[in-house]
Amino acid sequence: MDAPGPPLAPDVLERDDLRRALGEHDFAAAFALIKKWGGLSQNKIAAACELTPGKVSNVIAGQHQISSMVVIRRIADGLRIPGILLGLAPRPWEDQPRDVTPSPEDRRHSEEVPWRPDATIGLSDHLTRSDLVMTRRAAARALSAAAVTGAALLDSLEGWLQPAGADNRPRRQGRLGARDLDDLETTARTFRAWDHRYGGGLRRKAVLGQLNEVASALDQHQATSIERRLYGVMAQLAGTAATMAWDSGLHRRAQEYYDVALRSAHAAGDTAFGANVLAGIARQVLYGGHPQDALELVRLAQDGVRTTAGPRLRAMLHTREAWALAAVGRTAAFRRATAQARDALAHATTGQDPYWIAYFDEAELAGVTGGRLLELARRQPHEHAHMAAEEIRMALDQRGPEASRSHALDWIGLAECHFLVGDVTGAVENTHHAVDAAAHTQSGRVRNQLAQLYPYTVGRDVPGPLREARNQIRDLLAT
């Protein structure tokens, strides 16, 4: 998306017939109109959209229908068609200046940072300061930065299994006490609750400001017990900043804050939260389509807490493993890992685990399992869609709108289950619920998942209720 595709003149994009074709995902008509009024040949359309000329020819001839959201996003980005016209969220380039190039800070951050407490403090300070004063141009650059994958990601995290080094720098004396840390830990917990309820948005700035303050406090020499707790707070805040960045579409930035969170947990000696951070990175790369990386990350997490993890953390790690296994099509292994998660969760008791994993209960397990079965159902709908719907309904029965982001994702998943088995009435009803729930969260992840429903609602002769559902999705994604 960094290099603009062939521009379509504003008057072309304003044409009612083209807008109607784009809204219906009628790419036979859309490509024909772009050829006629936009002056683009089939070869130029194909090159811009990363399609073959033959494929474009077949689409125009009505011999091939484009329904993949991946391809539709490529068409939007290649031809610079605003997302709203295709039922997508606004594309990252829509407010992006043309002369965006990687900054020295972006290039510098890719260099290896040693696993030392002072390096972790410096990394946190650098990230928060640059984010708190981020310009529109820097924000556009951050939105277009891809997450790191493969060996570049995995090798950089191996230091988590090594002993933490001491911070022997000369520093001035700090004055924080136990009561100060109680307040900071309460604040970190509140911010985490914000993230679960609202996702990214303006609240992210508050988290970054507090994270910067904690990094500044760690630049002073605190009592050993205070310093350890401070690193724990920094890990919590950085983890929250990571998920908020991810929800805002800042995928590389999210990874960088996950890195700070993991290093801070390492410095605090909190291997349990470190494993939780690795699971968060695994979830991010799963959404990015890299299940093998996710498996490696989960196993790295399991290696670090094999003898110390509580039942909820073990259960959560098994579900991440199951997710990755389902993504590579290993259905039997997925079921085995899911059964291990259920067994581990059965041994959990109230108050036994840290507060940050308390969310992982029977409802969360059902929702996660339903989501993975839904992924399998996209390949084999008659085998998996009904089971996916059953698990998702269990999640909806056990958690309500207070679990804002998860609640919306449950409704979206249930609607897709109905679409997959051809139950249009049930699909429309659940799509209405999904849109209503999505309207109460700022989560970019929720909007991206809601966009996955859009292709099910398009066509030349769709019934009125389905058109109404499509309009609801389009209206929400446009906000």
What does the model show?
This protein is an all-alpha fold. The protein has three domains: 10-95, 434 Repressor (Amino-terminal Domain) (Orthogonal Bundle); 102-269, no CATH class; 361-479, Serine Threonine Protein Phosphatase 5, Tetratricopeptide repeat (Alpha Horseshoe). Helix content is 66%, strand content 0%. It is built from 24 helices and no strands. It has helices at 10-13, 16-23, 27-38, 42-49, 53-60, 69-79, 104-109, 117-132, 136-144, 151-154, 178-198, 203-218, 224-247, 251-268, 271-287, 291-304, 311-327, 331-346, 362-377, 381-398, 404-420, 424-438, 444-451, 464-477. Helix 2 (16-23) packs antiparallel against helix 3 (27-38) and helix 18 packs antiparallel against helix 19. The two termini are 22 Å apart.
Distance between the termini: 22 Å
Instruction: Give the amount of beta strand, in percent.
Output: under 5%
What's the shape? globular
Spans of at least 5 consecutive residues with low confidence: 1-5, 97-111
Quote the average pLDDT: 86
Features:
single chain, 479 residues, mainly alpha, 434 Repressor (Amino-terminal Domain), Serine Threonine Protein Phosphatase 5, Tetratricopeptide repeat, 3 domains, 0% strand
SSE arrangement:
Blueprint: H1 10-13, H2 16-23, H3 27-38, H4 42-49, H5 53-60, H6 69-79, H7 104-109, H8 117-132, H9 136-144, H10 151-154, H11 178-198, H12 203-218, H13 224-247, H14 251-268, H15 271-287, H16 291-304, H17 311-327, H18 331-346, H19 362-377, H20 381-398, H21 404-420, H22 424-438, H23 444-451, H24 464-477
